Amino acid sequence: MAIVNVSGYGEALSQTFNDPIQGLNTTNSSSPLGQRAGIRQQYEFGLYSYCAYVNSSAGQCSSQTIAARFQPYTTITSDMLLNYSEFTTDIFANTTFINSSYLGTNSHAAYYFLLLGTISTALSLFTGIPRRTFLFLFSTAMSVISALFILIGAAIWTAIVKKVESVNTLQPAPGILSGIEVSYGNGIYLSWAAFACLFAATIPSMISCCTFRG
User: Fold this and answer.
1) I want to staple 107 with a disulfide (CB 3.0 to 4.6 A). Which of 6, 68, 70, 120 is the partner?
2) Where are the alpha helices (DSSP H) in 92-131?
3) How many CA atoms lie within 13 A of 207 on its CB side?
C-alpha cells in the first residue's frame, strides 16, 4: 500500500551533522527486523505485514497480522541504533510521518472498509446469479455498498500516504533533503481500480433489477 525508500537517509544525516554515519544501515537481509540491527534500503507496507529490502530483491517480511497498522516511523526507528532514532525524532518532529497513532488508527480502519467491500462484492456476485427479482435487488444493493466501502478504504489510504509524502521535501538543514522518499504502493492503485470496476458494474446490475420479471 505504501513504499518508504530510506536509501539516502544516511547520507542526509552525514551532511546535516558534517560527520560520518556508521552503523545506521545493514546489508544483511537476514538480520532480524525491529531489533536495532540496521535499517534497510526500502520498506514496503501492506494490509497484513511489511517487508524490508537491502536491495531490489533481498529482504524479509514481518509476521502477518490482520489489519496491520501503517507506522513507518516506528518500524524504521526500531531497526536503528538508539542514538540515530533520537536524531530521527528531532528531524521529523511535527510531521505526519512521526505520528504513528494517527497513521496506525486510520490504516487499521481502512483495512476493515476494504474487507467489508470485498465481502459485499462476493455477496453481490453470488446472489446475482439466480434469476429472482428479490435477489437481483439484493445483489444491486451489495454492489453499491461494496463500491462505497472500497472507495472509503482507498481514499483513507491515499490521504494518509499523501500526508506522509511531506517528508520527501523536508530539509533537516538548509539545502539538504531528508533522504527519505514515500510513495504509493501498488495496493492503493489496485483499490482504486477495484472501485472503478464495482462502480461500473452497478449500472447493468440496476438495469437488471428494474427490468427483470421473474
Assistant:
1) 70
2) 100-127
3) 4
Cell of 89: 525524532
Amino acid at 9: Y
Angstrom CA distances, 1 to 7, 86, 123, 142, 177, stand at 19, 27, 25, 25, 24
pLDDT per position as a tens digit, 95-123:
999 999 999 999 999 999 999 999 988 88
From the list 104, 105, 197, the residue with the least C-alpha distance to 150 is 197
User: What's the grid cell of residue 101?
Assistant: 497513532
- Give the H/E segment covering residue 154: helix 133-164
Give this prediction's pTM: 0.87
What one-letter code names the amino acid at 17? F
CA-only gyration radius of the chain, Å: 22
Give the pLDDT mean for 120-133. Answer: 73
Distance of CA 204 to the CA centre of its chain: 32
Q: Report which secondary-structure segment, H or E, holds 26.
A: none
Amino acid symbol at 167: V
User: Which amino acid type is present at position 180?
Assistant: I
Number of neighbours of residue 127 by Cβ within 10 angstroms: 19
Interatomic CA distance for residues 199 and 150, integer angstroms:
10
The set of residues, in sequence order, having a beta carbon less than 8 Å from that of 126 and lying 6+ positions away, is: none
